[in-house]
From TrEMBL:
<dbReference type="InterPro" id="IPR000682">
    <property type="entry name" value="PCMT"/>
</dbReference>
<dbReference type="Pfam" id="PF01135">
    <property type="entry name" value="PCMT"/>
</dbReference>
<keyword id="KW-0808">Transferase</keyword>
<protein>
    <recommendedName>
        <fullName>Protein-L-isoaspartate O-methyltransferase</fullName>
        <ecNumber>2.1.1.77</ecNumber>
    </recommendedName>
</protein>
<dbReference type="InterPro" id="IPR029063">
    <property type="entry name" value="SAM-dependent_MTases_sf"/>
</dbReference>
<keyword id="KW-0949">S-adenosyl-L-methionine</keyword>
<keyword id="KW-0489">Methyltransferase</keyword>
<dbReference type="GO" id="GO:0004719">
    <property type="term" value="F:protein-L-isoaspartate (D-aspartate) O-methyltransferase activity"/>
</dbReference>
<comment type="similarity">
    <text>Belongs to the methyltransferase superfamily. L-isoaspartyl/D-aspartyl protein methyltransferase family.</text>
</comment>
<dbReference type="GO" id="GO:0032259">
    <property type="term" value="P:methylation"/>
</dbReference>
<dbReference type="GO" id="GO:0005737">
    <property type="term" value="C:cytoplasm"/>
</dbReference>
<feature type="active site">
    <location>
        <position position="60"/>
    </location>
</feature>
<keyword id="KW-0963">Cytoplasm</keyword>
<dbReference type="GO" id="GO:0030091">
    <property type="term" value="P:protein repair"/>
</dbReference>
<comment type="function">
    <text>Catalyzes the methyl esterification of L-isoaspartyl residues in peptides and proteins that result from spontaneous decomposition of normal L-aspartyl and L-asparaginyl residues. It plays a role in the repair and/or degradation of damaged proteins.</text>
</comment>
Amino acid sequence: MTSKRTRDRLVQRLVDQGVSNRSVLDVVANTPRHIFLEEALSHRAYEDTSLPIGHGQTISQPYIVARMTEILLGAGGTLSRVLEIGTGCGYQTAVLAQLVERVYSVERIKPLQIQARERLRRLKLHNVDFRHADGGLGWPDEGAVFDGILSAAAPREIPARLYRQLAPNGVLVIPVGDDQQILTLVIRVGDTNEFKTQKLEPVRFVPLLSGVTR
Ligand code: SAH
């Protein structure tokens, strides 16, 4: 179930679907997805599908995790600070933590955040800051900016705060819409207040909700 062959098969599927960033594929191959799921579902961990993680939420499909990560990383260079909105079970967080210097991850459902923190500790990934907060408002610290922002929940429209938290040349990858969502890429042009937006592909995410729950 968790054998190298099973994981390699998943990686091959991602390659077949067009994921080409070698570092991203290597990280997916080496990250145990089964530890992010309840035992009853862990036998399905290496299928390329989203699965329930409780509280009405889902672990993202490996294809979408890989795709969003490779878009975020872009042509190259390492990103130093990345904001993740919607920690969920922490799988995307774990993938990011192996590819960028530091991850700042917000989740609005407290028990999910607690579990994710524990899993990342088990994987000895220590370069992540977790906050229980509404990610529609960005990272709660005033003046925080990020080279990359990745959202795993879909707003109807991109919240203004996320634009303001992009560093010069910063990159935002986010699903936008309600019934029909489009994965959207926003790049801040240098240190200006100009942003280039590109619509990439149809996707299905849970909605970005406001406020937090205990
Ligand atoms: N990458 C995660 C995706 C989880 S689903 C994983 O693979 O597990 C998206 C997550 O976004 C859910 O956990 C949901 O609670 C969270 N979410 C929704 N709206 C949010 C908001 N405004 N702020 C922070 N997290 C939010």
